[in-house]
Amino acid sequence: MHKYYWITTYGCQMNVHESEKIAGILRARGYEQAEREEDADIVVFNTCCIRENAENHAYGNIGALKKLKKSRPSMLIAVGGCMTQQAGAAEKLRKKFPFVDIVFGTHNLSVLGELLDKKAGSKKAVVDIWDKEGEADTEDISFRTSYPNAWVNIMYGCNNFCSYCIVPYVRGRERSRESGAIVREVNALLDEGYKEITLLGQNVNSYGNDRGECSFPQLLHKICERDGKYRLRFMTSNPKDFGEELVRAIAEHEQICNLVHLPVQAGSDRILRLMNRKYTAKEYLQKVELLRKYVPDCQLTSDIMVGFPTETEEDFQATLELVKEARFATAFTFVYSRRSGTVAADMEGQIPEEVQKERIMRLVELVNAQTRELSAAYRGKTVEILCEDFDQKRGLYLGRDEYGRMGYFRSDTDRIGEFVKLNISQTSGVSLEGELTQEKE
Ligand code: 5AD
Ligand code: SF4
User: Fold this and answer.
1) Which residues contact 209 (CB under 8 A, 6 or more apart)?
2) Which CATH architecture has domain 3-128?
3) Atom 2 in ligand 2: residue holding the nearest Cα
4) How distant, in Å, are the alpha carbons of 188, 264, 319, 356 from that of 305?
5) How many alpha carbons fall within 13 Å on the CB side of residue 160?
6) Which of 10, 81, 242, 251 has the most CB atoms within 10 Å of its CB?
7) If you average pLDDT over residues 341-352, what whole number do you get?
8) What is the pLDDT of residues 374-426, one digit of tens each?
């Protein structure tokens, strides 16, 4: 008898990768991926609580399963991820959705298999949330689904306590993995044929601070001892710890993509101080300059927030100015979301929704214009793409260039997992289209 699973993921890359670990645990217990949610024997919600809309989305989707659960009581419903890790969240979930069978947290993801066993012998829901970081090294259980890219956690948690952010409360303090284990894992993935490795951490620049064994630039040097054609990416870098040693490593190693995701959040020093970001707009721009000095063809992306408590039109204008000065290739833009338990949630001067909406529209317009302008500059150029998928609808293969820009092309043969060169003939806001060059690799 086959057993099937379905996982719904909310939030960031960190969660996408954690769902690969959840899939690995379920597969080790004989489950296979279902084609549709309604066919699954277990449905897992891997939730996110970083912004209210991600949380509402998850609540809506869990609620929508009530009917299915009634018609098929043997179907298990499990809820995990950082939403469950908030104070009081498990009780709220149980009250709202008494039909949920298993609730687990981010700190005990590795024991999901044991929770399944516990549930098998019991009618009662199994709720197990650890309030202390205690995860085992779960990397090797991942069932990876993003070939030719592989995500690799290098650390967990965050120590920064930006005043708006819930992450340090739900993911605990920084814990770095041992550098030898990371290097071995990266090498094993490259041996298996993966062509791109993305190192993950809430703030990769502080990798190793808790162990004192190896810094982040040193880790990059160790990984890059491996020869051959592959790409190395990392996210996220906190600007406060972004420095010359890292910039030199990016410049030195061909494998490290010349793309840095450096979330600035805001352009006003007053707001940055209230956010507890520990840098000024000027200091941020100096780091950008440093990066461009060593790596002239480097591109930058960012996270930017509008509507933080007390943000004035003048503060917002400073953000727009900084977006222009930093010449971001693209950016994730967010409306500030009040997260209970954070310092900013209790600040005076919360900004009305209409003002937030109007500001985010202006910000998105500016960011999109910069992205379009950069895209247009690609026309007539040759770019190298790592082919990652086939788009059935368009009948085209697709992949990304070093800077993460999506390129589409036609091919008679399967190119997934290959580096190909494209002559770019068309560009749109965020993507490129071109023809394969004739040259052989
Ligand atoms: N409201 C809006 N955006 C947030 N982020 C983190 N917390 C919040 C919040 N409360 C954004 C930041 C961060 C990204 C991952 O999510 O920009 O860099
Ligand atoms: Fe949140 Fe700041 Fe940590 Fe990023 S660095 S996860 S924004 S607290």
Assistant:
1) 174, 176
2) 3-Layer(aba) Sandwich (3.40)
3) 162
4) 38, 9, 9, 10
5) 27
6) 81
7) 97
8) 999 999 999 999 999 999 999 999 999 999 999 999 999 999 999 999 999 99
Domains 3-128 and 382-440 share a fold: no
Of ligand 1's listed atoms, the one at least distance from the Cα of 339 is 10
Residue nearest to atom 13 of ligand 1 (CA): 303
* Residue 100 CA, ligand 2 centroid: distance in Å: 30
Which residue's CA is the nearest one to ligand 2's atom 4? 202
Query: Which of these, 334, 277, 243, lies nearest to 160 by C-alpha position?
Result: 277
Give the global pTM: 0.94
> Omega of the bond prior to 280 within 30 degrees of 0, cis?
no
Please give all residues whose beta carbon lies within 6 A of any atom in ligand 1, as ranges: 12, 50-51, 164-165, 263, 265, 303, 305, 334, 336-337, 339
Q: What is the CATH number of domain 382-440?
A: 2.40.50.140
- Ligand 2 atom closest to the Cα of residue 202 is 6
- The architecture in CATH of the region 149-376 reads Alpha-Beta Horseshoe (3.80)
Contact 264 CB / ligand 2 (< 6 Å): no
Mean pLDDT, rounded, of the chain? 94
Model confidence pLDDT, tens digit, residues 285-310: 999 999 999 999 999 999 999 999 99
